[in-house]
Amino acid sequence: MAANSVADVSIAGAGIIGLSLGLELLERGLSVTVIDRRQAMSAASRAAGGMLAVNDPQNPPELMPLAIRSGELYPAFLERIASFSGLTVPVRTQWAMQHVASPRPGAMVLTGAQIAEFAPGLHVGDTVFEWLREGSVDPNDLRRALPKAFVAAGGTLVENTAVQHVEAGSTVRVLTSAGPVSAGEFVNCCGSWAGEPELGLERLPVVPIKGQMANLRCHPDRLRCVVRAPGIYMIPRGDGRVTIGATLEHAGFDESVEESVTRRLAAAACALLPDAEVPPKIDMWAGLRPGTPDMLPVLGPADKPHCWHATGHYRDGILLAPVTARVMAQAITGEKPEVALDAYSSARFAAVQR
């Protein structure tokens, strides 16, 4: 990166949120530089299942307006990525089985015929499942395509470069390990690192939530929908892989993988799906999700002029990327966001901090 480089918008964090917002801003005619301390999409995206869980009953009710709108935006979002990158990001499943203590009013309860059609190898026992119309994508497809799309659209991607401090006035000066960037606007999309003091913005209560995951093998015809059961989820990729996860660990910034942990996940998955095979050398990984106390993202202005937050998406970064990009681009360019951002403002933490 050239010293004293200039952009209309500088974004810290090249995860799915930062790059999706960058792509949206580029389409509005702005110049965008995205900076990341490591390689693009290598933190929370590694701990993502890729479930587009718009109606997940475990999500806070306040998340629903964002989730519903993001689900509506998803087809165009994937088409945009493909048009710039030349790489297709397929929707790999269309349905999900969600365990519930008891069915919700109006919910579709899974029938034996549906199990026989979509998951003939599944042992459900007495577990009650709701049937959700819900897609999933493979985050690895997005990890390959989205950075390429952003650069092809005209964005500047700066990897392995730390943002050291943000100075804000009539414009913003972003100090990095590779030199300063002058920008009209700055957006904190740092994920689990969004609350770190070096940014110079107000301290956000965003903490890393570690997730360990693994891939099993199974014939594609034995599982053709996502399964979310107590203590385990399984996501078939359509090519013989079944992604299982995920742990929820408060382990700081530790991203180590423990085979004993992933093998416990594998045992839980195989109890439900005996046809699944655990490879002798299990494919396993870990990543850090950015969590907040209320499990809601932080979207909107920061405490310095021309500075913004778009972070704290916890387990829903893949799902919420299109709507986050849309509403944040609207806010940054002076438009009224199509989903109100009041519930996601960083100001909600001020009273707790005081």
Topology:
Elements: E1 5-12, H1 16-27, E2 32-35, H2 64-85, E3 91-100, H3 112-118, E4 128-137, H4 139-152, E5 156-158, E6 163-168, E7 172-176, E8 181-188, E9 207-217, E10 226-229, E11 232-236, E12 241-245, H5 259-272, E13 283-291, E14 298-301, E15 307-311, H6 317-332, H7 350-353
Parallel strand pairs: 1-2, 1-8, 2-5, 3-10, 8-15
Antiparallel strand pairs: 3-4, 6-7, 7-8, 9-12, 9-13, 10-11, 11-12, 14-15
Helix pairs in contact: 1-4, 1-6, 2-4, 2-6
For CATH, the homologous superfamily of the largest domain is named as FAD/NAD(P)-binding domain
Series of H and E elements: EHEHEHEHEEEEEEEEHEEEHH
| Biggest sheet descriptor | 8 strands, mixed
Tally of DSSP helical segments? 7
Description:
Strand 10 and strand 11 form a beta hairpin. With 354 residues, the chain is an alpha/beta fold. The chain contains 7 helices and 15 strands. The protein folds into 2 domains: 1-90 and 138-206 and 293-354, 3-Layer(bba) Sandwich (FAD/NAD(P)-binding domain); 92-135 and 207-291, D-Amino Acid Oxidase, Chain A, domain 2 (2-Layer Sandwich). The radius of gyration is 20 Å and the shape is globular. It has helices spanning 16-27, 64-85, 112-118, 139-152, 259-272, 317-332, 350-353; strands at residues 5-12, 32-35, 91-100, 128-137, 156-158, 163-168, 172-176, 181-188, 207-217, 226-229, 232-236, 241-245, 283-291, 298-301, 307-311.
Structural descriptors:
D-Amino Acid Oxidase, Chain A, domain 2, 7 helices, eight-stranded mixed β-sheet, alpha/beta, globular
